[in-house]
Design a protein that fits this description.
Strand content of chain B: under 5%
Oligomer: heterodimer
Shape of chain B: globular
Order of helices and strands of chain B: HHHHHHEEEHHEHHHHHHHHHH
Distance between the termini of chain B: 24 Å
Largest interface: A-B, 56 and 54 residues
Structural class of chain B: mainly alpha
Largest sheet of chain B: 2 strands, antiparallel
Number of strands of chain A: 0
Strand content of chain A: under 5%
CATH class of the largest domain in chain A: Mainly Alpha
Chain lengths: ~375, ~450
């Protein structure tokens, strides 16, 4: 039996490893065609990406990715595509920033208040496609994409017409008022210093990393250890069977979309509470789409997603050095795109390999060689 | 994959669905309905024009802009029909459209507009090929592959821009240098004053439009809008609607392609090469998306610009759902979304007057729902109509940020309110593996 366990783990790892290898190979071809040495590009990226300053930056960058991917993964778990994370987190961030700047509260409550506002806005916005799907049969892929465009407009309108800070003359950047210090999330620098890590000046490890780790644990518990999680996964694998066993599909769809939106509301929080302390037009965009990729890469599991988030954060960070070397840093976007495409293909191929293997195993265990089952299994 | 596709093949499709003759009757019915819809829409706009006193609402310029913006959306919708009729959901159309804009911009800058069109089509088709390899050969979930292609296409376009576009002539990481020249435009003779062998024919629709007669002049504005200043590329795009209908419903290959989307196992047992048909459908859809992208470059901006597609690939996909997986339905939906998209080119007063038109439209829709006895629809229409009425009465202008998402909001409202009698291909979105027919 132990050999089959080894084989299983091997097959599970084969997917991501093969996908990354394929992505590296394709990117190497692209680099070579455009006249750059792939090997030196990769080593430059690896060297730059493994500096202490880069590692701190990678950890910070991975936090929004992580929440975004968790939000997408929750939907995936029951066969729902929440492509609307992009719109959900942006709207949540702008409203939470304005709300946070408008109130005065003692420190922990202030942070909590901002986070709850963000989750509520994201959740409400996320629930809309759920309601539309249940009541009107509108496919959530289309509706969430439309809602992304709408939320971009609504966020821009809210910022420009209602939440805007009166700027000093000459300051043209549209932004909300700054959140008071009580609403800032503390950094992890003191902790790092306490364990003897010398932090480069200007670097700051954001404390929201801890919240992300907690969220990952909570996600695992919710999906794999609760009744709700069981219903969720059952609905994803076989909606009809789940319904027959007493799951209310409509309520599941709306709850899941709202919950997914609430997690999406946290995407902008590390940046808002730990870095900008306000919403500006410079607020990062596109995190929702990256989240889809990372959720796929991590197979919707919190640990896998963590790996995916670090990988994408590493690629983003190490791309920064490429421009100095005269290599277009956009090669990283191609790498990320190919990783996603090859990962889904690799998982499918591995899945088929496993199916064939299982059939062979079953045939060998039941009939022995030469049985009809074996030939059928081999034919696929 | 963990994500399951909602569609489950529900046994063999009824033979009537595959029969070409019902297709023809359906098409005629749809054409009639389309005409009624069009006149009704113009009537509503005419009433809104008179009440709000904004002539621009039904000027030929408004409809002309709507047509030009309807073309890319309609092309995507048509392309989506090819893919989904062969059973492959293609949400990667947005990415294929991005490839179309990039290749269109590059070739347009290098060699001229028609080369831009040709290479735009090719770029989109390559995107379609990738989607076909992933979904048909490797059996990857259609939506996941599509999402991946959208992300990949953005990266490819940006990388290619950095390495090819020359900064000295106005290019860069996010845009191409201007393309060489444009595509000729014509006015249709006798209808919109077109020129025949040097003789200026009468401009009948223009004459009608200038009278400012209620409804008749508004219709004149519509007709002149869609017959004047037509580029050859627009004419080709319009011709693709009947051509697609003819190909899919009147030829043997079209029948084979559709049969694969309805019941691949049955089709295979009859000797149809399922994979080949699916490849044909998906690559064609990519080519249409590429053409749509090239159209944006050649007819609008005159350059490739990052983010130029603006989600039109998805709106086009929604148009196909709205159009019930049929070319004529897609044409109708594209007209509506094109009109909504064209609002961003109009002045504030016209946009504000549109609110009243929406109120009137909702009133009509509510009346129809009531007659059909559909209470949910009725309530939804009344509530939405009331909200828009309050908005209209309480404001003087619509914020510019809202105008930007009008087509998206329209898409959402239309999909939410439309009848749910749509019928998608039975095996749409279902991964089929060769040999399942045994």
């Amino acid at each position: 039996m132990s050999t089959s366990v080894v084989r299983r783990v091997g097959l599970a790892l084969l997917g991501p490893v093969a996908a990354i290898a394929v992505a590296l190979a394709i990117s190497a071809v692209v680099l070579a065609i455009s006249g750059h040495d792939p090997w030196s590009t990769y080593t430059t990226m690896a060297e730059y990406g493994s500096r202490l300053q880069s590692i701190i930056s990678i950890l910070n960058r991975s936090v929004p990715f992580y929440f975004s991917a968790l939000a997408v993964a929750l939907g995936f778990k029951m066969g729902l595509f929440n492509i609307g994370v992009e719109g959900q987190y942006r709207l949540a961030a702008v409203v939470a920033a304005a709300a946070g700047a408008a109130v005065t509260l003692p420190a922990p409550l202030h942070v909590l208040f901002i986070v709850i506002v963000a989750m509520a806005v994201g959740g409400a916005w996320g629930a809309i496609p759920g309601v539309l799907k249940v009541t009107r049969g509108v496919n959530e892929v289309i509706s969430t994409i439309m809602l992304n465009a709408i939320s971009t407009g609504v966020a821009a309108y809210l910022l420009a017409a209602h939440f805007k800070q009166q700027n000093a003359p000459g300051d043209l950047i549209i932004k909300t008022k700054e959140i008071p210090k009580s609403g800032w999330f503390p950094s992890l620098n003191p902790v790092l210093e306490a364990v003897g890590i010398d932090i480069p000046s200007g670097s700051e490890l954001q404390g929201f990393l801890v919240i992300a780790a907690l969220a990952g644990a909570l996600f695992y518990f919710l999906v794999w250890r609760t009744r709700f999680g069981f219903d969720l996964r059952a609905s994803g694998i076989n909606p009809l069977a789940a319904k027959a066993s007493g799951v209310n599909p409509n309520r599941m769809i709306i709850t899941t979309m709202a919950l997914s939106g609430a997690i999406a509301g946290l995407v902008g929080m590390s940046t808002l509470l730990g870095f900008f302390h306000r919403y500006t037009v410079d607020f990062p965009t596109g995190l929702g789409f990256t989240g889809i990729a990372i959720a796929l890469l991590g197979r919707n599991h919190p640990a896998g997603i963590a790996f995916g988030a670090f990988l994408f954060a590493f690629l983003d960070r190490s791309a920064q050095v490429l421009d100095l070397e005269g290599i277009p840093k956009e090669i990283v976007v191609i790498m990320q795109g190919t990783i996603i495409l090859s990962i889904v293909v690799a998982y499918e191929v591995v899945h088929r390999l496993r199916e064939t293997q299982e059939r062979k195993d079953v045939a060998a265990a039941t009939e022995g060689p030469g049985s009809p089952l074996t030939t059928e299994g081999a034919a696929v | 994959m963990t994500a399951t596709t909602p569609a489950v093949p529900s046994g063999p499709a009824s033979p009537a669905d595959l029969d070409a003759s019902t297709g023809a009757r359906g098409a005629r019915d749809q054409l009639t309905r389309l005409l009624i819809l069009l006149v009704g829409a113009v009537l509503i706009l005419a009433i809104a024009r008179v009440i709000t006193d904004t002539d621009e609402l039904t000027r030929s310029g408004t409809f002309s802009a709507a047509l030009r913006l309807a073309v890319p959306i309609g092309l995507i919708g048509l392309g989506a029909i090819y893919a989904e009729r062969s059973g492959v959901v293609n949400i990667g159309l947005e990415g294929m459209m991005i490839l179309g804009t990039w290749f269109g911009g590059w070739a347009g800058w290098q060699f001229g507009p028609w080369w831009g069109v040709a290479l735009g089509i090719l770029g989109g088709a390559i995107g379609g090929l990738v989607h076909a390899v992933a979904t048909v050969t490797f059996g990857v979930d259609h939506i996941i592959s599509g999402v991946a292609i959208n992300i990949l296409a953005g990266g490819v376009a940006r990388y290619l821009s950095v390495i090819t576009f020359d900064p000295t002539s106005g290019g860069g990481a996010s845009q191409s240098p201007p393309i060489k020249g444009g595509i000729d435009e014509i006015d249709l003779p006798f209808l919109a004053g077109g020129n025949v062998f040097g003789w200026d024919t009468p401009d009948i629709f223009g004459w009608l439009e200038r009278r400012r007669w209620f409804l008749l002049s508004d219709l004149g504005g519509l007709l002149r809008g869609i017959t004047s200043e037509l580029s050859w590329l627009t004419l080709i795009a319009i011709a693709l609607v009947p051509l697609s209908y003819w190909f899919l419903w009147k030829t043997g290959t079209g029948l084979q392609l559709r049969s694969v989307g309805e019941h691949p196992a049955a089709a295979e047992s009859l000797g149809v090469r399922v994979y080949r048909m699916k490849y044909l459908g998906v690559i064609t859809s990519g080519a249409f998306a590429g053409l749509a992208g090239a159209f944006l470059v050649v007819e609008f901006a005159g350059i490739y610009r990052e983010g130029q597609t603006g989600g039109r690939g998805f709106i086009g996909l929604a148009t196909m759902i709205f159009g019930n997986w049929r070319p004529i339905g897609v044409a109708a939906g594209a007209g509506l979304f094109g009109f909504a998209d064209a609002l961003q080119l109009r002045n504030d007063a016209t946009v504000h007057a549109m609110l009243l038109a929406v109120v009137l439209g909702m009133a009509v829709f509510a009346a129809i729902s009531l007659r059909r006895g559909n209470r949910t629809q009725f309530v939804a229409a009344v509530v939405l109509g009331a909200l828009f009425l309050v908005w209209y009465l309480a404001s003087d202008t619509v914020p510019r940020q809202f105008v930007f998402f009008t087509p998206h909001l329209t898409t959402l409202l239309v999909l939410g309110l439309a009848r749910r009698k749509s019928r998608m291909p039975a095996a749409d979105g279902v991964v089929y593996r060769k040999g399942e027919a045994t």
